[in-house]
Automatic annotation (TrEMBL):
The keyword rRNA-binding does not apply. Pfam families: ABC_tran (PF00005). Residues 2-246 form the ABC transporter domain. It comes from the Bacteria. One of its GO terms (molecular function) is ATP hydrolysis activity. Residues 250-275 are annotated as: Disordered. Keywords: ATP-binding, Cell membrane, Membrane, Nucleotide-binding, Translocase, Transport. GO terms for cellular component: membrane. Residues 262-275 have a biased composition (Basic and acidic residues). This is Phosphonate transport system ATP-binding protein. The keyword Chloroplast does not apply. InterPro entries: AAA+_ATPase, ABC_transporter-like_ATP-bd, ABC_transporter-like_CS, ABC_transpr_PhnC, MetN_ABC_transporter-like, P-loop_NTPase.
Length: 275
């Protein structure tokens, strides 16, 4: 279980990104973190694994207080937290398999990682994970030869190679088309169910958040203004999180965008068949 207690982050400029944020995420639960730009979503995720240092409050993973760990202890703790990035954060010149195995860097001696000589058990796990994310035929391809959706699947497999207790996911669909976005969100949700993994997903797409998370937490100006089931995310709640907006019109626009994307995909498939 992840537990945040009065988490606060104030930057040197005096800007407060997070203010007294408290909530728990039990094992197996997928939480969608939504809110406008500047609400503190990315800061919150980065505070959990201390890529950003909180200025107040406490963070616990199980019985371990993350905010109280020294550097060496933090390195060990980060093995328990998998991170999936918006821009994939892959090493482009390395193969898919090598990128997945980089999830074990916190476990193996430096010489093994430098020589790319990982234990057989780690390699076997990596192959199994590539099979699970649908990339078993791409193990030897360079990362820069993959599509955006494939790269994100490599990022998911790399995070799982750590055998984590918690997934932190930062805008996993921001660079993807609507169909691929749904596939990625569905994959993350299924994997969390299979492994009883807790997850926090920072996501800008409200419709995807409603469809593929168990719980929504809405941030505005660094504060939690909503915490509940996706079904409770009605127009009044969205207005509280994002401000005034014509939500019905926005949903229509999202539906039209999705229909356009499907039509474009069908057009490309027809062109490919005609060749």
């Amino acid at each position: 279980m992840l537990r945040l207690v009065s988490l606060t982050k104030t930057y040197k400029t005096g800007d407060r990104a997070l203010s007294e944020v408290s909530f728990e995420v039990p094992a197996g639960q997928v939480v969608g973190l939504i809110g406008p730009s500047g609400a503190g979503k990315s800061t919150l995720i980065r505070c959990v694994n201390r890529l950003v240092e909180p200025t107040g409050g406490q963070i616990f993973l199980g019985d371990t207080e993350i905010t109280g760990l020294a550097r060496g202890e933090l390195r060990v703790l980060r093995r328990r937290i998998g991170m999936i990035f918006q821009e994939y954060a892959l090493v482009e010149r390395l193969t898919v398999m090598e990128n997945v195995l980089s999830g074990r860097l916190g476990y193996v001696p430096f010489w093994r990682s430098f020589m790319r000589r990982f234990p057989e058990a780690d390699v076997a796990t990596a192959f199994a994970l590539l099979e699970r994310v649908g990339l078993s035929d791409h193990a030897d391809k360079r990362a820069d030869a993959l599509s955006g959706g494939q790269r994100q699947r490599v990022g998911i497999a790399r995070a799982l190679e750590q055998n984590p207790e918690l997934l932190l996911v930062d805008e996993p669909t921001a660079s993807l088309d609507p169909k691929t976005s749904r596939q990625i969100m569905r994959l993350i949700k299924e994997i969390c169910e299979e492994r009883n993994l807790a997850a926090i997903i920072n996501i800008h797409d409200v419709v995807l958040a409603q469809g593929f998370t168990d719980r929504i937490i809405g941030l505005r100006a660094g504060r939690v203004v909503f915490d509940g089931a996706p079904s409770r995310l009605d127009d009044s709640v969205l207005t509280e999180i994002y401000g005034e907006e014509d939500w019905a019109q926005m949903r229509r626009a999202e539906q039209e965008d999705e229909e356009d994307a499907r039509a474009e995909m069908r057009r490309r498939e027809m062109m490919a068949e005609a060749r």
